């Protein structure tokens, strides 16, 4: 018989501390303003600054680089709390933590970490991640943005467009992926960190999105933009690998975000079915409603546990160097589809009130959808999982 092993679901004091900080900010500052930011689409600059001041914009970033110095589990717990208050705020937080800071921490030089991570992790500036292009979404290797090394080898000249850049309208620094050797395809992609205040950087209009409306998104364009060679992240031609490894971490953040919005929709529904009466009794006493509540609870718990497992796998990978792409994709796929399903059921149970902007259910429904799309669609997650399981391409 296999040897029995204890399963410990206890959180550390530090993990509970960051969760408590996130919950307090979420309830006191973010939740009361979420509907208005959603209505106007205004970027919540003051709230984002508050998140940074409390270590939430760089949770896994070491203290010496302006972060909180905690771990992936603490990050997931904090993300869930922020997303439960407002998905848009958690999107800004996710890109900062998972895509921008994580990539530089893992692949950047000491000088790059101090110069480009510190201000972003501390909340003084906002970071962004530029991989997607108008003609290349899931197929990142089809990108057209070019970075050509100058004759003297001192800088690259960048030309091209990137689309759907979260925090693009407000970001000070951007992690950019561009082709340095187009003939090599994915192996010809390199990564850079760029300053948006430099000449040649241009922002397009802010996208009018269905959900996460307070998370500013736009197209960005580079026209003869000069990026110093010392701003290249890692070796030339290693950008695709950097992008994919960063997305593994990012998918855990999106899974946590999905758990947060799913929890908010579930808890609102649980309160509603106890109070709303029909035919003289609470609608929560009807068997059809009870079946929906049971299914919502099961999907929420499964998503939560798989997200925490992925965060745990990431922690183990930091020590062993192993990949955790399967765990991240399983969590992202399960949590995002659970969020969409739970939000759908929540609107249905609330009936007409669920469809009204007077209640947050319709916002949860709109926000949940994006978790099935960005940082790898549900279809891409299924490909990642199946290919990792079978070893077939």
Automatic annotation (TrEMBL):
Residues 237-388 form the Acyl-CoA dehydrogenase/oxidase C-terminal domain. The keyword ATP-binding does not apply. InterPro entries: Acyl-CoA_DH_CS, Acyl-CoA_Oxase/DH_mid-dom, Acyl-CoA_Oxase/DH_mid-dom_sf, AcylCo_DH-like_C, AcylCo_DH/oxidase_C, AcylCoA_DH/ox_N, AcylCoA_DH/ox_N_sf, AcylCoA_DH/oxidase_NM_dom_sf. Pfam families: Acyl-CoA_dh_1, Acyl-CoA_dh_M, Acyl-CoA_dh_N. SUPFAM superfamilies: Acyl-CoA dehydrogenase C-terminal domain-like, Acyl-CoA dehydrogenase NM domain-like. The keyword Flavoprotein applies. Keywords: FAD, Flavoprotein, Oxidoreductase. Its cofactor is FAD. Residues 12-124 form the Acyl-CoA dehydrogenase/oxidase N-terminal domain. Residues 128-224 form the Acyl-CoA oxidase/dehydrogenase middle domain. Belongs to the acyl-CoA dehydrogenase family. This is Acyl-CoA dehydrogenase family protein. It comes from Coralloluteibacterium thermophilum.
């Amino acid at each position: 018989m296999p040897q029995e092993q204890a399963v410990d679901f206890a959180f550390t004091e530090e993990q509970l501390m960051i969760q408590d900080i996130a919950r307090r900010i979420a309830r006191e500052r973010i939740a009361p303003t979420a509907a208005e930011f959603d209505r106007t689409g205004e970027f919540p600059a003051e709230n984002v600054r508050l998140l940074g001041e409390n270590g939430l914009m760089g949770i896994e970033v070491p203290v010496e680089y302006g972060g909180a110095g905690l771990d992936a589990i603490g990050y997931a717990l904090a993300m869930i709390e922020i997303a439960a208050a407002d998905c848009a705020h958690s999107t800004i937080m996710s890109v900062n933590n998972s895509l921008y800071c994580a990539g530089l921490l893992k692949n950047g030089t000491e000088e790059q970490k101090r110069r480009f991570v510190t201000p972003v992790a501390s909340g003084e500036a906002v970071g962004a991640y530029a991989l997607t292009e108008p003609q290349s979404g899931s197929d990142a290797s089809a990108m057209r943005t070019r970075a050509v090394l100058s004759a003297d080898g001192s800088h690259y000249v960048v030309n091209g467009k990137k689309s759907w850049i979260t925090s693009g309208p407000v970001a000070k620094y951007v992690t950019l992926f561009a082709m340095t050797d187009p003939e090599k395809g994915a192996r010809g992609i390199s990564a850079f960190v760029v300053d948006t205040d430099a000449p040649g950087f241009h922002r397009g209009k802010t996208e009018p999105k269905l959900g996460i409306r307070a998370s500013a998104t736009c197209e960005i364009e580079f026209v003869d933009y000069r990026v110093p060679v010392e701003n290249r992240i890692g070796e030339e031609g290693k950008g695709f690998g950097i992008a994919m490894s960063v997305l593994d971490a990012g998918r855990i953040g999106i899974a946590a975000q999905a758990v947060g919005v799913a929890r908010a929709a579930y808890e609102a529904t649980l309160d509603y079915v106890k109070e709303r009466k029909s035919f003289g009794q609470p609608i929560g006493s009807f068997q059809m409603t009870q079946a929906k509540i049971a299914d919502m609870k099961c999907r929420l718990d499964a998503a939560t546990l798989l997200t925490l497992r992925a965060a745990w796998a990431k922690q183990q990978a930091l020590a062993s160097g192993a990949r955790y792409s399967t765990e991240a994709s399983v969590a992202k796929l399960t949590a995002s589809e659970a969020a969409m399903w739970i939000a759908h059921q929540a609107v249905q149970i609330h009936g007409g009130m669920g469809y009204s902007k007077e209640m947050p259910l319709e916002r949860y429904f709109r926000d949940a959808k994006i978790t099935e799309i960005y940082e790898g669609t549900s279809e891409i997650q299924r490909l990642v999982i199946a290919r990792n399981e079978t070893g077939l391409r």
